[in-house]
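Incident log entry.

Two folding requests arrived from the same account within the same minute. Monitoring flagged them as a possible duplicate submission, but the sequences differ. Recording both here for audit purposes.

Request one:
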Amino acid sequence: MIALVGLPGGGKSTVGRQLAKRIKARFIDSDAVLEERIGMPIRLFFEQHGECLFRDHEEAVIDELTSQATAGAPLVIATGGGVVLRPANRQHLRERATVIYLRSTPEELFRRLRHDTQRPLLQVKDPMARLRELYEQRHPLYEETAHHCIDTGRPSVGALVNMIVTELGLAELSPPEA
């Protein structure tokens, strides 16, 4: 099982989908599972019920998803950006999965997210300042949780997938796409 962690907009879902396809694994986006469970978009849940209750639901989903590691079929999980805030999530991810931190600078993320209206933590007056704050708070937790770190920078999704496959020694299992 491979789990991707990183800040919102760091490419976890996009890279995760392509990585899963490349290594012939199942892909699960933990935020999509959460939205299905809570019956509404995460942003709306945040507004109506607050972050604490959301994190409770997220912790249950992460425990469940990472428990599937022994179920046999290869799995790639894209996690939500705040998943590392809970110690139980960090422990489950670190012990039950190979964790890849898709590291992005706040500036890179701002370029990608400046028009995004769906990320609850970025719906603030100064999203750049918020991204810097999130990076300061979460970067050490991502590093603590991750087995491998990949800088996202400007490479294409395909290049990032290649970097992950190489880093994990999976190249012999999945020929590069033509």
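Request two (distinct sequence, not a duplicate):
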Amino acid sequence: MAETLLYLTLGTNDLDHAARFYDAALAPLGLIRRATERTEIGYGLPGDRRARIWVTLPFDGHPATVGNGSMPALVAPDQAAVKAFHAAALAQAGTDEGAPGYRPHGPAFYAAYVRDPDGNKLSAVHEG
């Protein structure tokens, strides 16, 4: 994760289901669960000093909704990690938004797109 990013928050309506999804989908990208709280879970790199991705029940108590046009793109160390991210996400009730492959955003832009069980869109990208 870039040092310019303090953290990113994604909403969920089922924290247990989200934990299973994110534990599996983020592992191929080298991200681990660093925090487990009653209303949120946090992920980051093993050597980072904090969680950079938080999945949380909304603070206001209303249902979580997705942001139209919002999508975090996460760095993958290689194409195999992009493929593993996509497969793990689908195995944990995620939905396919774009199979692993090259995209027209650059000659080496290899990405996959999924939605988590709450509808949040995510991407894993390897540029190499």
